[in-house]
Design goal:
five-stranded mixed beta sheet, alpha+beta
Length: 95
């Protein structure tokens, strides 16, 4: 029997008064494929149109996987930043 380690990933709400500033943050640093993308899909389902989600990841696969997912789901990828092996995605939610 194959065992998977349990994990907890939470989306936290942040206050934002400036346009395109994140209203929510998803931190999946330390998690590898497929968890970051799966958690992003789950987070997007629970958000409303116009919310801005910041995703923090250190999995190099997310650099390709997240933009492809967002194209299929028709959300707007506002920016991607890479810094010291970590990725910061800013996404505008469209429902």
């Amino acid at each position: 029997m194959k065992r998977y380690r349990s994990y907890v990933v939470e989306v936290s709400q942040v206050s934002a008064d400036v346009q395109n500033e994140p209203t929510h943050r998803l931190n999946v640093i330390g998690f590898q494929c497929p968890i970051p993308v799966a958690e992003l899909k789950k987070a997007l389902q629970n958000m409303k149109s116009g919310d801005i989600l910041e995703v923090l990841s250190d999995d190099p696969e997310t650099y390709h996987d997240i933009p492809l997912l967002l194209l299929r789901m028709e959300h707007n990828l506002l920016s991607i930043e890479k810094n010291a092996g970590e990725y910061n995605f800013v996404i505008e939610v469209k429902q």
